[in-house]
Design a protein that fits this description.
single chain, alpha+beta, Beta-Lactamase, Helix Hairpins, 4 domains, 5-stranded antiparallel β-sheet, 13 helices, 13 strands, 53% helix, elongated
């Protein structure tokens, strides 16, 4: 605006100079008339420019507050009024949509926080304020880790692997268990969603406690029944074949129930958050040789079992838990591979990861069943599971053991050709060893 005034000042100065020149040269009236006209135009435009500047400086820009104009300025102010009305209408629509969005988010049970690329809080809804102890008015622009200080959440943000949610327990200000999920969107922005799963976690804890307690209670009477059945079966005075068959069937079913109880107790221990992982250096070659001997004993010469130890690397973890998981996979391979089939057990390191393989030439598994194999009590074939004595909990135990060791299970199978179960251990779990012989 000051530039416009400067130019008008130059025009006014030129008019004055022209007037003086005309007076000196004698053409007084013509130059005087031209100068007066120019001066009137300068004053006219200057007045409208001042009015426009004053309108621009006010905070409430509405079409009714636009000054009246004359001449060319009337069309300028008319265009400006239409533009302002259009902008006000657009702003009203945006305000209405924003209010509706806020009402929707306020009605949702989940909390939502918008974070920028450096994890600073840009906006959050009232539910998130309650869940995470945020005050939007005071904490806007703050790092989210200043509000949520749990180490697991800080590591979750730093890892930038948001495909899986994070469980946060015992949040400050409230005794809440939250399920946290970060969803990237837009340009380097993230939406943090928090869900209160306290009641679900309480129910799950009750379920785990019930299973653990009932399993403990069942263990003793089953042991007693099993003992008496063994004693009766050893008696020489069994009169009929029917009695012998009945005792044999009772012994088998009692043994199956004992295995089920033991597996339930194992699962309860693995699911218990208070049961911390007791880590030590696990000698993998030694463990696999031990499992190989057990597999040969279980097979009783019905299969060709191969052991390939291609690495002397060891694992940082729980030997008891890893033995249980790997033993389950090897046992399944023996049970579900027909007589005369082959089973390969392998341990090696590739691309910085520890790999444990169990391959078999068994009946194979349909692809539709593979994603659900680690669910407890999920059975591909109920009759086959009963024939082999499986409890339906073996792969569920494997999954929980691997989760505790940050390992993952990869399953590939082809009907009629066999299956491969591969455990992949992360590099941080490997302890270097020297391969001998």
């Amino acid at each position: 605006m000051s530039d416009i005034f400067r130019r008008l000042g130059l025009v006014l100065a030129a008019a004055i100079v022209a007037l003086l020149t005309g007076m000196i040269s004698g053409a007084v009236y013509g130059w005087f008339f031209l100068s007066v006209v120019l001066l009137i135009l300068v004053i006219h435009h200057t007045r409208h420019l001042i009015a426009l500047e004053e309108w621009l400086l006010i905070s409430d820009h509405t079409s009714t507050s636009i000054p009246a104009g004359s001449g060319a300025w009337d069309a300028v102010f008319a265009h400006l009024a239409r533009y302002v009305r259009s902008q006000n209408k657009s702003q009203q629509l945006m305000d209405l949509e924003l209010k509706q969005l806020q009402n929707v988010t306020a009605a949702m049970p989940d909390g939502m926080v918008i974070l920028d690329e450096t994890d600073h809080i840009q906006w959050c809804d009232p539910v998130a304020e309650k869940h995470l102890g945020i005050n939007l008015e005071l904490d806007q622009g703050q790092q989210i880790t200043n509000m949520v200080r749990q180490q697991s959440f800080v590591e979750y943000l730093a890892a930038r692997k948001f495909n899986k949610p994070l469980m946060l327990k015992q949040m400050r200000h409230h005794r809440l268990t939250l399920l946290i999920q970060l969803v990237p969107y837009g340009k380097n922005q993230r939406l943090l969603i928090s869900r209160d799963v306290t009641s679900y976690e309480r129910i799950e804890t009750m379920r785990r406690d019930f299973i653990a307690n009932i399993s403990h209670e069942l263990r003793t009477p089953l042991t007693v029944v099993s003992g008496y059945l063994e004693m009766l079966a050893a008696e020489d005075g069994i009169d009929s074949e029917l009695q012998r068959l009945a005792l044999t069937a009772m012994q088998e079913q009692t043994a199956r129930m004992q295995c089920l109880v033991e597996d339930l107790l194992t699962l309860s221990r693995l699911e218990n958050a208070l049961n911390k992982l007791h880590e030590s250096t696990v000698d993998m070659p030694s463990l696999l040789r031990e499992l190989y001997r057990e597999a040969e004993s279980l097979s009783a010469g019905k299969h060709k079992i191969h052991l390939d130890i291609a690495s002397e690397n060891q694992i940082l973890g729980s030997r008891e838990e890893l033995r249980s998981a790997m033993g389950n996979l090897i046992g399944n391979a023996v049970r579900y591979t027909p007589e005369g089939g082959e089973i390969h057990i392998c341990w090696k390191v590739r691309h910085g990861k520890g790999l444990f393989y169990v391959r078999d030439t068994g009946v194979g598994i349909e692809q539709a069943h593979i994603p659900r194999l680690t669910e407890r009590f999920y059975r591909v074939d109920n009759s086959r599971s009963r024939d082999t004595g499986g409890t339906g909990l073996g792969l569920a135990i494997v999954k929980h053991v691997l989760n505790r060791h940050q390992a993952r299970l990869k399953i590939t199978s082809t009907i009629g050709k066999g299956s491969e179960f591969c455990i992949q251990f992360p590099a941080k779990r490997l302890i270097a060893g020297t391969l001998h012989g």
